[in-house]
Amino acid sequence: AFDVGITFFASVVTLSLGFVITVLLGRYLGAGDLGLYRMASTICRIAMLIVAIDILSAMIKYVAEFKDDRTKFNQIVSSGVILFLVHSSKVYI
Predict the structure, then answer these.
(1) Any idea what the Cα angle at residue 9 is, between residues 7 and 14, rounded to 5°?
(2) What H or E segment, with its residue span, contains residue 90?
(3) In sequence order, which residues have a C-beta less than 8 Å from that of residue 76 and are 6 or more positions away?
């Protein structure tokens, strides 16, 4: 229940910040440019989804398996983050 609460809180914060940023960008850019920004953002998110296939799922599985072994836990998390960053950087190049 504690982990679900943390995930829920993080989702609420993320959605709230996304809403605020969208409103500010809408006022600053205007309707047409905001539409272009959102379209480019959606394309980047789809590309990130394709690039990150199962990296996060695998991390969740292995972190749950090795939660008591701190060394293995740190190796899995750092490897997953590095792998995700390397693959996601290819999307923007």
Answers:
(1) 95
(2) helix 70-92
(3) 59, 62, 63, 66
HSE toward the beta carbon, residue 47, CA cutoff 13 A: 13
Q: Which two tokens stand for residue 4?
A: 């679900």
Query: Which token pair is 31?
Result: 């309707």
Q: Which residues in 4-32 are b (16+ Cβ under 10 Å) and which e? A: eeeeeeeeeeeeeeeeeeeeeeeeeeeee
55 half-sphere exposure, CB direction, 13 A CA radius: 18
Residues 6+ apart with CB under 8 A from 56: 80, 84
pLDDT along the chain (93 residues), means of 10: 80 90 89 88 80 74 83 85 72 51
